[in-house]
Amino acid sequence: MFDIFKILSDSLYSDKITSIVRELSSNARDAHIAAGKNDIPFEIHIPVSTNLFSSADSNIFSVKDYGTGLSEEEIYNLYTVYGESNERSSNDCVGGFGIGSKSPFAYTETFNIISRYNGVKTTYSAFINSDGFPSITKVF
């Protein structure tokens, strides 16, 4: 399993940064379609530095959508299991292969996820654990 994860996260994209932007933007668009908010734009923050995941707020890459959010179970499944997708039921969605949400792992070993689900905002940290597999920790 580790070899498949490594291939998909490290070797799948020739232009990793552009691919991350494309994949996460596609997921945001799909979230809007699923929520019936096609006319509302999602937000992208592009950092002023080349380090997409540095600690300074102005240097953090982020994509914010206004979809329904993800439950805790969905966060754990979608961000740690290749092939896991919640977009297969619609022909209107771009995604569905279960790869896009994991695309930041092509560039970094850790990133944050914020989900607003049923009125509750939860922050998670996605990271590569000591065995080389993706893991999630609920931060707050």
3D architecture notes:
With 140 residues, the protein is α+β, with helices and mostly antiparallel strands. It has three helices and five strands; from the N terminus they run ααββαβββ. It has helices at 2-11, 16-34, 72-80; strands at 43-45, 62-64, 110-117, 120-128, 134-138. The strands form two sheets. Strands 3-4-5 form a three-stranded antiparallel beta sheet, with helices on one face. The protein is globular, with a radius of gyration of 14 Å. The N and C termini lie far apart (30 Å).
Morphology: globular
Sequence of secondary-structure elements: HHEEHEEE
The parts where pLDDT drops under 50 for at least 5 residues are none
Largest sheet: 3 strands, antiparallel
End-to-end gap: 30 Å
Keywords:
three-stranded antiparallel beta sheet, two-stranded antiparallel ribbon, globular
Write a concise synopsis of the structure shown.
The protein is of the alpha+beta class and 140 residues long. Helix content is 27%, strand content 20%.
Write the layout of secondary structure elements.
Layout: H1 2-11, H2 16-34, E1 43-45, E2 62-64, H3 72-80, E3 110-117, E4 120-128, E5 134-138
Antiparallel strand pairs: 1-2, 3-4, 4-5
